[in-house]
Write the structure tokens for this entry.
Amino acid sequence: MTVAATQRLSRLLAMVPWLVNRQGVELAEAAQRFGISEEQLVKDLELLFVCGTPGHMPDDLIEAEWDSGQVYLGNADPIARPLRLEPDEAVALIAGLRTLADVPGLAGDAAVTSGDESRETDGSTQLSAVESALAKLTAAAQDAAPAAARLAVDLSGGAEEGVLRTAREALAARRRLHLRYVVPNRDEVTERDVDLMRVLSVDGRWYLEAWCHRAEAVRLFRVDRVASAQLLDVDGTPPPQAKSREDDAALFTASPDDLQVTLEVDPRGRWVAEYYPVESTEELADGGLRITLRVATRAFVPRLVLRLGGAGRVVSPPELVTGTAQAAREALASY
């Protein structure tokens, strides 16, 4: 499930009990409550209208009305009831939250360094949220809490943990790192020296943001692609021109120098617009999308189209239309 789809599902699950208990609430007020536009709220209500309990008969589906500008929900009582956890579910959640609280970097030890400035990430805020949720869940779980206290998860010993440990040491001592970094698109291991700026976690993956002396620019390195990290006896303070991207949601913004590609996908391929950063989308008559995005390497496009399995095609540039068709023929010839 993509990040956007996951966020929407979480919003819908919170929206149903809120609306059931506020029958007749104004569209504008409900949209403001969930931090979305009225247009997006209507789309969510249209989706709720075809959701319900198993059976999929008319009486099983949620009833939603909003034509008057006020929202009314019906036949949603089972979903609106508070969640009740079984003891084993409570134990699993408590153990998971305790493990999360011990994740390296969550407590704000991943400093952001740019030039002569140094500051902490918002890890302390994240840790506070985890501890607050843990305290509430432990209090509510009652008899399940002691059982959860006897469980422990060992997060040490992995290759990624070793890289993270070295990276945190580099940040604390302001020392340069030598990385052996795997570039999947070229099936190549590169050697590069970097001045680390911060360690961050985005969508469940760890990244190093650093000034790369090979590229002479700020680069983002996925920790699971770092073959090795060696601490150098060299000052690792990034140069003044090294600017950190503070908005994690914009970490993967494409460069203007990247190749612009246009794809057309049928409804099965709409996930591409949610999974990858795109420049624009246009609705097609068949329910599909025309998608414009930028790619750093041409090899990415044929792989994406093959992954779509007939649900998409390249429209431009012409050389990629030809190259992708050739890649598909070669793939078929392999079977």
Q: What stands out?
A: DSSP finds eleven helices and 14 strands in the chain. The radius of gyration is 24 Å. The CA atoms of residues 85 and 141 lie 8 Å apart.
